[in-house]
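Lab notebook, design round three. We kept the backbone fixed and only want residue identities now. Task for the bench partner: fill in a sequence for the structure below.
Input structure tokens:
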């Protein structure tokens, strides 16, 4: 299928690996910071016994950001028998190391420590876990939860399963025939949807549409068939994934309103709602209305564009449709699309009728 070649090109353009341009410098900074954190933890009396990447790098779904930023999400693990009672204490140690190494706006958030490097487009998140190893029950992780200044009611070592989550996302056992190829397709689908998010949502909204939420939804609905032909048809499979997300109950309409909330639960401890909305010091189920409405409307628009692309016979028109939702990294065949007026005419023919982007009812 000719369109698959363009999906393959798109995937190569957006896929961020440890060999990607610019990442090596970010990785060198990460290694230097990690060395300093290990030394600081050792001096504090609770040495780091394990460290690993979390997030998209851990499951091979990282993408190049539109603004050339690099995000690193790293876990730090200390032995439960040596961990301080106060879960915020080791987070303060991390913050001090980051501030000493030219990170700006270093902040202790409830689940992590976050900061941006001043002279490099590098954003870094560190989470701290304590690990209790039991011969007959296995490893038990607890996440350091709490902010600077939190009282005892708002900080804790909270049960968590970071490696279990990574394993669940990365698992291919249920895929049947050609499981590793299907896992590669799953990863491509996640990358496509993350770039779709980055291209179609305002910065204020897209930062709330967490990558882990998209990844969990896609993992839960992706159900490849037995026949290998589907592995060569990302367009068809992506359309099915979008259909299934819309029908899976992640989006729920509130009673007596036309507003939607987005709700997705982590499949592993603490099994919380990824998009749970905070209001007046408390929480309500699912996202806020703005995120829920926009996600639904823009997903419906994506569904429509994918369906039109499936029905379209012209390769240029297919690519133009897909370029309109995935951005300029989705290629339009140059030799057939040199006339900008023709391409603009094709795109105009498929303009959506939904509301304006950036509003709670936007497409």
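Proposed sequence:
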């Amino acid at each position: 299928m000719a369109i698959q070649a363009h999906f393959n090109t798109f995937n190569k353009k957006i896929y961020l690996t440890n060999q990607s341009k610019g990442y090596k410098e970010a990785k060198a900074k990460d290694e230097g910071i990690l060395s300093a954190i290990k030394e600081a933890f050792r001096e504090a009396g609770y040495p780091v016994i394990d460290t690993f990447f979390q997030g998209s790098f851990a499951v091979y779904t990282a993408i190049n950001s539109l603004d050339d930023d690099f995000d690193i999400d790293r876990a730090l693990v200390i032995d439960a028998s040596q961990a301080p009672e106060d879960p915020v204490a080791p987070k303060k140690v991390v913050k001090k190391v980051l501030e000493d190494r030219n990170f700006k706006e270093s902040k202790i958030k409830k689940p992590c420590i976050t900061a941006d490097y001043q002279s490099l487009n590098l954003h870094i998140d560190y989470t701290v876990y304590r690990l209790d190893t039991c011969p007959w029950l296995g490893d038990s992780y607890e996440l350091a939860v709490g902010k600077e200044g939190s009282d005892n009611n708002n900080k804790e070592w909270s049960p968590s399963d970071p490696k279990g989550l990574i394993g669940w996302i990365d698992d291919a056992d249920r895929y049947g025939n050609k499981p590793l190829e299907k896992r590669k397709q799953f990863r491509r689908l996640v990358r496509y949807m993350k770039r779709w998010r980055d291209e179609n949502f305002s910065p204020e909204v897209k930062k709330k549409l967490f990558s882990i939420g998209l990844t969990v939804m896609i993992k839960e609905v992706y159900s490849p068939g037995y026949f290998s032909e589907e592995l060569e048809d990302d367009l068809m499979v992506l359309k099915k994934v979008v259909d299934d997300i819309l029908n899976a109950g992640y989006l729920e309409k509130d009673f007596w309103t036309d507003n939607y909330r987005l709700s997705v639960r982590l499949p592993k401890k603490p099994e919380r709602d990824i998009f749970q909305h905070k209001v007046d010091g408390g929480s309500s189920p699912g996202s806020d209305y703005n995120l829920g409405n926009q996600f639904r409307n823009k997903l419906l628009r994506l569904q429509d564009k994918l369906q039109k692309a499936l029905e379209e016979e012209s390769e240029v028109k297919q690519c133009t449709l897909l370029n309109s939702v995935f951005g300029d990294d989705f290629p339009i065949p140059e030799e057939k699309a040199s006339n900008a007026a023709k391409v603009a005419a094709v795109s105009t023919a498929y303009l959506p009728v939904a509301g304006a982007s950036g509003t709670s009812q936007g497409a």
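Keep this in mind before ordering anything: Residues 174-348 form one domain.
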